[in-house]
What we know:
Order of helices and strands: HHEHEHHEHEHEH
CATH topology: Rossmann fold
Radius of gyration: 17 Å
Largest sheet: 5 strands, parallel
Helix content: 55-70%
Distance between the termini: 41 Å
Number of strands: 5
Number of domains: 1
Number of helices: 8
Amino acid sequence: MEGYKERLEALIQSKESLYRDLLSQENADVFESAKDLLVQGLLNGQRVFFCGNGGSFAQAQHLASELSGRFYMDRPPLAAICLGSSGSMFSAVSNDFGYEEAFAREIQALAQPMDILVVLTTSGSSPNILRAVKMAGDFGMQTLALTSKRALDLLRVAEVTYAVDSEDVARIQEMHLFFGHLLCAQVEAEIFAEPLEDVEDE
């Protein structure tokens, strides 16, 4: 039976490979596109909506709060909202219209053209996520997806996609959070004109 140290060593090796994959030119370009999408949108008065299911929903809430609250620096809040955060609204729509409509219905209620939808999904095949991306497109929103290489449907429709090259759900989610934190730090630094290397965590 695999012990603690063996499991940890295997985890370290797999995570190192995924972190190094972020250094590839492909992923560096994806990061720049994602960062520019958020920075330009927020500077132009657009809002950023996040959504996901399960652990990805928790991460969607987490990243939205990093932007609307604070990340590294004290500064004005940024317009970031996590869809599905109202339990009564989410359950009512799921009950009355079907679970796959829950995020899409909220987009209909709140979104404006050129707002940004950020979806987090390890599979890229969740019906409510794909429906949200379709609704976002109908509304003229811009879309950023944090997903995995197996998300063929999502890879075809999202404007910017960071796809983790892993089949392990936990590793995919961990890389989504890491990528999201990198984005929050760079977005905050660029919007508020403070070089990233000069920012210190408290």
